[in-house]
Design goal:
Number of strands of chain A: 0
Largest interface: A-B, 46 and 46 residues
Oligomer: homotetramer
Radius of gyration of chain A: 20 Å
Shape of chain A: elongated
CATH topology of one domain in chain A: Tetracycline Repressor, domain 2
CATH class of one domain in chain A: Mainly Alpha
Number of helices of chain A: 8
Largest sheet of chain A: none
Helix content of chain A: over 70%
Structural class of chain A: mainly alpha
CATH architecture of one domain in chain A: Orthogonal Bundle
Order of helices and strands of chain A: HHHHHHHH
Chain lengths: 188, 188, 188, 188
DNA sequence: TATGAATGAGGCTTCATTCAT
DNA sequence: AATGAATGAAGCCTCATTCAT
């Protein structure tokens, strides 16, 4: 007489607890016991839902990427004047900076600790999806998209290592001004 | 009279071996035993030179930062037309991209695994020294310096997670062209 | 449903094995591996029941003190002529001399090796409970109780370091005679 | 051209440093490195004077026992009325209580950690010398001497484990009174 | 399904001792 | 005689994983 549980829903609940834990303490520091405690289950139960620790990570990344890419394209306007799009991008970024930093941190850690090709491919593909979404939203060619993405990524990294270093408001103003000047020059 | 060993020089030799190991496998995966093997000594000897594993890391970061900041300012021209400086910066970056990625990777990992305030402060201070050196070399104000630094940092991060994503040649061409256009607009 | 184990009972079984080992080889010589072997479990299991080695010691002392103080008051008569009580005390002591020596030895070692205030307080409190029990049994004031206790303690110590030195039969005879003479003098 | 050093004198200097260290931290906690630092020499030098750590302990015990037994008989009167002798004994004890506790502590630790027959015999013989000296000073038969010695030993032990428990002044008063009463009864 | 007891390899660290200088 | 660098076995503890219930 198995207890009736929605297996998928339970997996997502466990993964949410994992994300909070990984974000706070890192994947390496999150022992199976700690995960179990954080999720309110026993260690044995974790192994009912995931074959091992690495699988938790893979499932978590998959879940996050699936959720995020849907949201990115939904939240960002895909046709509008460029300054509006730039503003939307910065808005999106500022609203999620904390989450995005956590995500980047986890991605970096995975790349380190789980050097299986599958894990690395998963991280790389997730990264590309973000990058492509950004290129689409900005409606720029891949080179500029990659550069803008580098800038965002570096901004997250810098904010991670030196929390006071990044002033997004000033940065947006600067970008907008460069754009305006380039437009003026092209038009003039 | 004691066995003749230059304590400082020996420390640096050990740290060099550590850097290679950390870069390859990560700090967490570098066990004291592996470090000892890589350095060609016994584990006990490591503890003759460093009180614990964390101290090795701290000493390594200090050594690298000391070496690097001296080199950055030495290698990059501090008075020259802007396009020349931009080119010099990209040259510097391209020549050391592998090393810089390793360094960033270690810095991120430290930030995760050694959440002692000292470790974090050390990473943050090292980051700032790089950023300041870059601002000086480009002779730009701190805001633009921070943005350029974010771009470099993100480029490294992206190259780390997705090795084929970054084409530094094309990126330099793009930056040079933006600069040229802005100059033309300002002059015109 | 979990594997059925009575956590408390299992702890006591482990502690009993520890006492035997500590008594034989000393606390310092009792490595976690040896303890595990003696108890018939793995080292990991020890850490399932106790957070660290010191905690094993603390739990052991607590268990012994709890058991003993109950037994002391139970085994010794609390109203009877003084010579009877003296005899009962010596009987109690002789029957348990080996155990008491082991206990004292462990207590001394703890005091040395675990100089945390908690450990020392625990030892001191255990000592006081024994002393108070003895004062009660002999029905003497605290000063005489402390002196009698010192005598017993020293007898144990001497027996520990020089096993042939102590003849409890002769000692009891001597004490009884002193008591008789003092009584006779007081009555006469 | 060996440096001119009085080998014996240097040994004693080293042993004095050892005693201080053993008394403070215990024999087990006194690593060869710590001993070397406390004595102001290198670890290598220790091995010039003693073949190994255990030999240090043996030499220390031997030195202390040699010094002490000379001193005990010298400081205590060997003919005088009994109350005077009792008083002298308590004086002696009170003046050296700290030292005697340290000594006892070390003796107990040796007995535990160095269960070689030689070490144990050495401790036992030292103990006997103290006991015999006490019997002589009190001019009592061996049984009473052993009991008095047990009392002193237990008093030291109790003072070690529970520093506030022992009031030597009150104890001496009590002993003197018991003696006086016994005398009165015998004389009357 | 769910629990948590049990495992044992492996991590960091300590330390008595040896030996080149 | 003296130094301190070097060794490596062994200590305590952690943790992913398995399995009886």
């Amino acid at each position: 007489m198995p207890k009736i549980v929605d297996h998928e829903a339970q997996r997502e609940l466990l993964l949410d607890a994992c994300f909070r834990l990984f974000a706070e303490q890192g994947y390496a520091a999150a022992t199976m016991r700690r995960i179990a405690v954080a999720a309110g289950v026993s260690t044995g139960t974790l192994y009912h839902y995931f074959p091992d620790k690495q699988a938790i990570l893979a499932a978590l990344l998959e879940l996050l990427i699936r959720r995020d890419t849907a949201r990115v394209r939904h939240d960002l306007p895909d046709d509008a004047p460029v300054p509006v799009r730039i503003h939307a991008l910065f808005l999106f970024y500022r609203a999620r900076a904390g989450y995005l930093r956590d995500l980047l941190r986890i991605a970096m850690e995975v790349h380190r600790h789980e050097p299986s090709p599958e894990s690395r491919d998963q991280v790389r593909d997730g990264l590309r999806q973000y990058r492509d979404a950004m290129s689409d939203v900005l409606a720029v060619d891949p080179l500029v998209g990659a550069m803008a993405f580098s800038f965002i990524l570096g901004s997250l990294t810098q904010g991670l290592l030196d929390p006071d270093a990044v002033d997004l408001g000033a940065q947006e103003a600067f970008v907008q001004e460069v754009w305006a000047r380039l437009q003026a020059a092209a038009d003039g």
